[in-house]
């Protein structure tokens, strides 16, 4: 026993006072009960002998994950998407329950693929169930906002050599009227065709000629350059372009196509988001499927539901209603115009970026309606709900502390502190596009669902602790 | 000795790596060092420094190249790992300034080694598990924690080499620091392992009265020696005291253990070199005062019977009504009365025939433990808030069937700042004998000598031994 203990106290203040009176250093917990109704489940999970080792194993795997851009290829080739199949953001959803922006993006994708001539026929066919759509996450992919992927769209392909896993994401279309915000007008479809005909092949040639590009290392640098990797990707985009440029110039492209490609990439500050996201997908996937682990491996929204996946419960989704972001609106848009939270981009927070790295991006805090000190406090609070820190992604404003990594379901339910997500806001009417940006949290329901399932999967408290049940990281 | 260690995929920024390299090069046992990412540039540098280039490395791998004393090599590598894993100190306005919402969060803010959990019993196991996950010893003051949860917590603690004190652990002393309800004692040769809170406090007070010091008093929870928990924390606490050279004598206090647990403890004692005195409170067993006497004698101290102050009282027709805030004190009194041939009704009687009804209606000699789980659910412990006991005291003084009142008054950290204050006017007005067992030490914040004098001045008979107080109370009660 430590003869000069520093004592953490939780509960009755008078007992802490007694220690203060004896000159003993104490740290008082600002204690509050777990979310009402979860007490038994939280206890069951906290007493699971596998938990601490399993969470450490999940964290170690997440930190060891690599993420290199190795190729750019069409979705039909890399994901095996067949005609009539789509991917979308978030947890599974039916057409009837889909939100405006997701419906708009699906209509646009039908038009882009040439499976229908008019939005009306596209919508009728979608409503009739003529097409199959499933979450990007089910195929190891991620998509921002509506996240709709159709077979002809080109995808970034990222590789994690440590785990032997790949992840994919579509190419970013830029801002304004774009498919991912649910717009499907002629200009949107025209741009998608240009991306398929010119941009995709050009980036494929540049990537193949350059060789693997270490996206995780670029993320490490961008975090020190004021990008939090979700709502600000400016430095990352330029660093990526810098990697590509020599090979792009010598790829034998038509001169005006080359200029268009460079202009398109450098003119879109969010271009690199679509590489941060699959890099984060590789990080979180590395921590998935570890029995007994309470680490969150997916946060994703489809515009209607917010979905959560957890390491110890595998592919099961825990959902709740997607929330409206709190933030700033573009032009004359207001809260009535905004759709609830949408997109797979919360994978960035799941891996320790975005809201979890907000302290590093004071330049955007006003855009999402905050102050620089709010940003530091928000990020700082996230450490309390995470299993560890990622030293590879160090925040200068926090004395180069690594970003909080590995959201622990038990910590969220115990403290009531929800993960903080930086996000863009889509208009709720299909075709409107982006209306603003702000801060949003998952609904607590997702975490309540997750803790309930984790408790059901935990060994009974009445069972003796054996060697087998105490061994870490048995795979699911 | 020259060696290159590769850490796969362990990225650190170049400034950090330059700092670590410099720290390393500054060591007297290191001739040359390079800690860097395995980029082509750094691999060339490695060549120039004369290190063998490792095979199969990528720029995302970390190189640790050291030319240093062979004998110190392990130490050098450990130091590199420690520097690489060092977390920055937090700054003003940083995370350290946010209130911690959980034990994990608090443990990360300070180099803590112990957690004191007094959250509601229904969720206290959650906080205790949180403490253990952070490698803290934990004292669970809360009661109403389930037996299965207790057992599991103690298994989790054993796996991490930590101690769980409790649940329902009221008292602990660690190197002079009192946790929970603890009396102020001087350090000394005795270590106490206690499965009972107020039993431990009585022991602390009696040893202090005999000028025998106590360095550790480790509570293990009242059910630790039950069949199910089977002494998990008791054995761990015995081992901790065994490992501490300042402990010459261990006193183990408990209510009667389950036979299998008693067996387990007995067997374990063979592995200890430190002397152990067993104080199992039960029928035909020595009371706590007798155990204290044995302990004082064993360490060469001078034992005198604990003091009694107050006048002589005349016998009073009626029954003894014992109103206790301390569970072990109530149990000890009940055992003494039973051994003397009296029948005692109590809320903590094991025999259903002797158990009080839910309204605690008095029946003959009646001893009530106001600290029992069922009376503390949703309210503070009576040592903190004695109002429920005070109401009952007033009622008993008015009850014609009550001849003598027996009360415990417990002092120390955590207890009511002046328990005598509310009692003195009631005692002064009492028309029947009132015997107090005062559990406290001279250095307690409330001052045991002062408290004893004020109660005696008001007309009470004040004992420092609960056993002696009980015997006098029984003697004073004439058959009604």
- The number of E-state strands of chain B comes to 21
Please describe the biggest sheet of chain A, giving its number of strands, its sense, and whether it closes into a barrel. 5 strands, mixed
Order of strands in the sheet with most strands of chain A: 6-8-7-3-9
Structural class of chain A: alpha+beta
Q: Number of DSSP strands of chain A?
A: 18
The fraction of residues in strands of chain A falls at: 15-25%
Name the assembly state. heterodimer
User: How many helix segments of chain B?
Assistant: 16
Write down the overall mean pLDDT of chain B: 91
User: Which spans of chain A of ≥5 residues are poorly predicted at pLDDT below 50?
Assistant: 467-476
Approximate shape of chain A: globular
Terminal residue distance of chain A:
38 Å
Radius of gyration of chain B: 29 Å
| Total count of helical runs of at least 4 residues of chain A | 17
N→C terminal distance of chain B: 92 Å
What would you say this structure looks like, in words?
The complex is a heterodimer of chains A (476) and B (480). Helix content of chain A is 37%, strand content 20%. Chain A has 17 helices and 18 strands. In chain A, the strands form six sheets. Chain A has a five-stranded mixed beta sheet with strand order 6-8-7-3-9. A four-stranded antiparallel beta sheet of chain A has the order 12-11-10-14. In chain A, strands 13-18-17 form a three-stranded antiparallel beta sheet, with no helix packed on it. In chain A, helix 7 (186-210) packs across helix 9. Chain B has 480 residues and is an alpha/beta fold. In chain B, helix 1 runs antiparallel to helix 3, helix 7 (197-209) packs across helix 10 and helix 11 crosses helix 16 (466-476). The longest helix of chain B is centred in the first third of the chain and has 13 residues, at 73-85. The radius of gyration of chain B is 29 Å and the shape is elongated. The chains are: A alpha+beta (476), B alpha/beta (480). At the A-B interface, strand 1, helix 1, helix 2, helix 3 and helix 8 of A face helix 4, strand 4, helix 5, helix 6 and strand 8 of B. Strand 1 of chain A pairs parallel with strand 4 of chain B, so a sheet runs across the interface.
């Amino acid at each position: 026993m430590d003869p000069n203990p520093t004592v953490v106290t939780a509960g009755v203040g008078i007992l802490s006072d007694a220690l203060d009176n004896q000159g003993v250093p104490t740290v008082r917990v600002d204690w509050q009960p777990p979310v009402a109704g979860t007490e038994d489940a939280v206890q069951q999970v906290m007493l699971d002998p596998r938990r601490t080792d399993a969470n450490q194993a999940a964290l170690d795997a997440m930190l060891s994950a690599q993420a290199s851009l190795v190729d750019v290829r069409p979705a039909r080739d890399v994901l095996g998407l067949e005609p009539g199949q789509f991917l979308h953001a978030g947890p599974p959803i039916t057409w009837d329950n889909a939100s405006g922006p997701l419906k708009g993006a699906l209509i646009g994708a039908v038009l882009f693929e040439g499976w229908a001539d008019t939005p009306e026929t596209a919508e009728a066919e979608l409503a009739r169930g003529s097409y199959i759509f499933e979450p990007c996450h089910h195929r190891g992919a991620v998509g921002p906002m509506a996240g709709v992927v159709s077979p002809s769209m080109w995808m970034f392909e990222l590789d994690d050599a440590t785990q032997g896993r790949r992840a994919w994401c579509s190419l970013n279309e830029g801002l304004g009227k774009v498919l991912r915000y649910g717009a499907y007008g002629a200009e949107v479809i025209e741009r998608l065709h240009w991306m398929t005909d010119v941009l995709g092949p050009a980036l494929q040639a540049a990537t193949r000629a350059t060789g693997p590009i270490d996206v995780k290392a670029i993320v490490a640098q961008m975090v020190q350059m004021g990008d939090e990797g979700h709502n600000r990707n400016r430095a990352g985009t330029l660093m990526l372009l810098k990697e590509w440029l020599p090979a792009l110039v010598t790829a034998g492209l038509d001169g005006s196509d080359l200029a268009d490609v460079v202009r398109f990439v450098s003119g879109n500050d969010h271009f690199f988001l679509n590489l941060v996201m699959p890099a984060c997908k590789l990080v979180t996937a590395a921590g998935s499927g570890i029995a007994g682990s309470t680490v969150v491996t997916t946060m994703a929204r489809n515009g209607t539901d917010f979905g959560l996946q957890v390491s110890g419960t595998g592919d099961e989704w825990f959902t709740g209603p997607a929330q409206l972001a709190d933030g700033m609106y573009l032009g004359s848009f207001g809260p009535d115009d905004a759709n609830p939270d949408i997109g797979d981009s919360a994978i960035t927070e799941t891996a320790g970026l975005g809201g979890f790295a907000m302290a590093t991006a004071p330049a955007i805090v006003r855009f999402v309606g905050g102050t620089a000190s709010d940003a530091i406090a928000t990020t700082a609070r996230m450490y309390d709900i995470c299993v560890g820190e990622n030293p590879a992604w160090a925040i200068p404003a926090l004395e180069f502390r690594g970003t909080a990594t590995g959201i622990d379901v038990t910590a969220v339910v115990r403290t009531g502190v929800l993960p903080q997500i930086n996000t863009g806001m889509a208009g709720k009417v299909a075709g409107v596009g982006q209306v603003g940006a702000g801060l949003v949290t998952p609904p607590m329901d997702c975490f309540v669902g997750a803790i309930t399932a984790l408790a059901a999967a935990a060994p009974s408290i009445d069972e003796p602790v054996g060697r087998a049940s105490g061994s870490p990281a048995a795979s699911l | 000795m020259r060696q290159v260690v590769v850490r796969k995929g362990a990225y650190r920024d170049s400034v950090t790596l330059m700092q670590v390299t410099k720290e390393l090069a500054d060591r007297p046992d290191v001739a040359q060092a390079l800690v860097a990412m395995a980029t082509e540039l750094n691999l060339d540098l490695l060549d120039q420094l004369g290190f063998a280039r490792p095979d199969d490395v990528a720029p995302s791998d970390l190189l640790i190249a050291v030319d240093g004393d062979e004998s110190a090599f392990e130490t050098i590598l450990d130091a590199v790992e420690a520097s690489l894993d060092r977390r920055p100190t937090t700054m003003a306005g940083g995370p350290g300034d946010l209130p911690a919402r959980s034990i994990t969060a608090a443990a990360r803010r300070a180099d803590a080694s112990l957690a004191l959990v007094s959250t509601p019993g229904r969720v206290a196991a959650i906080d205790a598990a949180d403490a253990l996950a952070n490698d803290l010893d934990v004292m669970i003051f809360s009661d109403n924690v389930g037996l299965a949860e207790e057992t599991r917590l103690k298994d989790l603690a054993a796996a991490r080499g930590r101690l769980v004190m409790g649940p329902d652990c009221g008292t602990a002393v660690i190197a002079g620091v009192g946790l929970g309800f603890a009396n102020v004692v001087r350090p000394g040769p005795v270590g106490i392992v206690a499965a009972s809170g107020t039993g431990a406090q009585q022991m602390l007070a009696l040893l202090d009265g005999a000028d025998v010091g106590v360095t550790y008093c480790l509570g293990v929870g009242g059910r630790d020696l039950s069949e199910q928990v089977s002494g998990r924390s008791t054995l761990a606490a015995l081992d901790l005291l065994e490992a501490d050279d300042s402990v010459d004598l261990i006193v183990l206090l408990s209510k009667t253990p389950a036979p299998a647990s008693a067996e387990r403890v007995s067997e374990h004692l063979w592995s200890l070199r430190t002397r152990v005195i067993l104080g199992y409170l039960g029928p035909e067993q020595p009371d706590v005062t007798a155990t204290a006497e044995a302990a004082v004698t064993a360490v060469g101290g001078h034992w005198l019977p604990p003091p009694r102050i107050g006048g002589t009282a005349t016998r009073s027709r009626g029954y003894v009504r014992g109103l206790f805030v301390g569970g072990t004190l109530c149990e000890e009194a009940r055992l003494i009365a039973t051994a003397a041939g009296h029948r005692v009704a109590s809320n903590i009687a094991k025999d259903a025939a002797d158990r009080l009804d839910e309204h605690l209606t008095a029946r003959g000699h009646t001893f009530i433990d106001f600290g029992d789980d069922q009376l503390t659910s949703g309210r503070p412990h009576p040592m903190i808030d004695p109002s429920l006991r005070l109401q009952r005291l007033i009622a008993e003084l008015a009850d014609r069937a009550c001849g003598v009142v027996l009360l415990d008054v417990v002092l120390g950290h955590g207890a009511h700042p002046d328990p005598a204050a509310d009692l003195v006017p009631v005692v002064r007005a009492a028309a029947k004998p009132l015997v107090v067992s005062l559990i406290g030490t001279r250095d307690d914040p409330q001052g045991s000598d002062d408290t004893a004098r004020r109660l005696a001045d008001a007309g009470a008979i004040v004992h420092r031994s609960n056993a002696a107080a009980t015997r006098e109370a029984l003697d004073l009660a004439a058959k009604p």
